[in-house]
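Provenance

Sequences were taken from public entries as deposited. Structures were produced by running a predictor on each sequence independently, with no templates supplied. The record for Putative amino-acid permease from Companilactobacillus kimchii is shown for reference.
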Amino acid sequence: MKNIFKKESVENYVKADSHLVRTLHAKDLVALGIGAVIGTGIFILPGHEAALHAGPAVVIAFLVAALVSGMVGMAYAEFSSAMPVAGSAYSFGSVIYGEFVGWLLGWALILEYFLAVSAEATGFASYFNDNILAAFGITLPKALQAGPLEGGAINLTAGLIVLIVSFIIFHGVDLSKRIENIAVVVKVAIIILFIVVGVFYIKTSNYVPFYPAKFHSSPFGLGGISTAAATVFFAFIGFDALAANSAETVDPGKNVVKGIIGTVIVAVILYVAFSFVLTGIVHYTKLNVDDPAAYALKVIHLGAWNKIITLGALIGIFTAMITMFFGGSRLVYALGRDGLLPKFLGHVSSKRAVPTNAIIIATIIQTFFAALVPLTQLASLINAGTLLAFAFISFGVIPLRHRKDIPNDGFKMPLYPVLPILSGLFSVYFIVMLPNLTKVSVSCWLILGVIFYFAYGIRHSKLQQDK
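Predicted structure for Putative amino-acid permease:
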């Protein structure tokens, strides 16, 4: 008789991941975290959410999302300290809740990671086509600028950038972290430059009304801000990606914590300041564009600065793709390692110490979505998986503390059990506040995951085969 709630052991995971090489330090994780968080989220989403849901109060939405993500990040840090293994929320869930719950988290996160990379790629294509190619007088045919859902044939630039990122990931952790560490410094400097220059062009009239009445919906009139915050959680999935790299981190009990906390601090400061300046330069009603920062600088006739910001956006989105690709490929590897997906996906190259087959599958799927599906439809589907994982990991700190077989001499989430419960409840609240289409779409994905588990996963699971 198979037990779908049978729990995996940390020892088995540590042993299975022993062929992955630990090379990442705290500074590398901060670079990866900022690489994920400071990407499409900061260069594109503030404009869309200001125009569609919150007005200038999008600043509050980002602040709320960052603070909740920071609380959840501490829960991830505790899990990574106690379980330094690949697979992040999937592996954590399998140990604490049992295989079936772990599988559902993993299945939800597959959607999250793959669509995140694809969404970043379409954001990259928008900036590149409209601001770089156009500067040289090059205009791609309409058929090569967008997928069939937008009246084209294929988003060529988006597909190509996924392939380039795949090439970097395929060549191992060392190459990826070297590129990430340099690029993160450049893009943060450019964002700070936008904030400093933009402050001098703020029109205070653009902040009135700060939270437009048309966005005042339930609960308590905060529906617009809540929906914007729920949507921009897409920007903060880097925490899960950091945890996914625990098996390749030196002294994860200390370094993963530093990586997450460092990422939270930088993200809060940059997102809030960037959004505040952006909505001060341009009235929120004009910001429903895919390149709001570049557009804002065009409005105030700073053409030269516009090119610098575009460079920052391209670097930012590129590094975000690297981190998300990292996390997604490691998750697919973990599911293959455990037999819930075909076992060839759990193969690790002896030459490069990377899960080559998982990377190939991730490349194919992500290139397909990036080339054929619009950004807005991709981004709307990502957040539910993120928030679902956030809720389970937050609440999971409580049973984790009661597991005598999982010692943890490293980081522990403060204000226990109040903070884990609060971060879990906030995550559930923001799931409720997501657009209905998003909730329906992700529910269908989870149902498909349940079917796949009982049709394939449970029969091939290594855990179910262990006596």
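The chain has a mean pLDDT of 83.
The chain is about 70% helix and 0% strand.
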